[in-house]
Amino acid sequence: PPQVSFTLELEFSCSTLLDHAEVTLQATSDSTEATPEDNVVKLSVPIRYEPNLFLSSNTNLHRYEVHPLGTFTHSSGPEFTTIVKVQNLGCYTIQNVSLHMALPALGHHQATILSVTQVLAENATCVLQRPSEGTQVVPVSPEDLLHMDR
């Protein structure tokens, strides 16, 4: 039997968001057919909207001096604040969004170069997790930093 393939492209308005679309397809012919009842099919397909998220960050400390090898002290450096924003630029709500951040906290000889002192969350739930025993922590060695421009 002959087959026809085609693609439907549907556009939706932000004022009317649907969770499914219903399409009725009907094949007609000038010929007389014995079973015309099987020429109609109704399809119902779920609709999933693509998220439009915008992630940005800003910090109040744009430059920090790292002491040469051998002169590193264990005293605390300057405190700085980093703001991370996740914005929904779409026209519908988004659920179950998770943001995972890995902070570079270890330097040469496992020296702590960063520690989180406070987490303030707005319209979000934040969980600060230390690396577990099985987690592979890769320290940043001094020679790796020579090739980085930022």
TrEMBL record:
Q: Which domain of life is it from?
A: Eukaryota
- Name its GO BP terms in alphabetical order: cell adhesion mediated by integrin; cell-cell adhesion; cell-matrix adhesion; integrin-mediated signaling pathway
The Gene Ontology terms for molecular function here are: integrin binding
Family matches, as Gene3D superfamilies: ntegrin, alpha v. Chain A, domain 3 (2.60.40.1510)
Listed under GO cellular component are: external side of plasma membrane; integrin complex
Name-wise, this protein is ITA10 protein
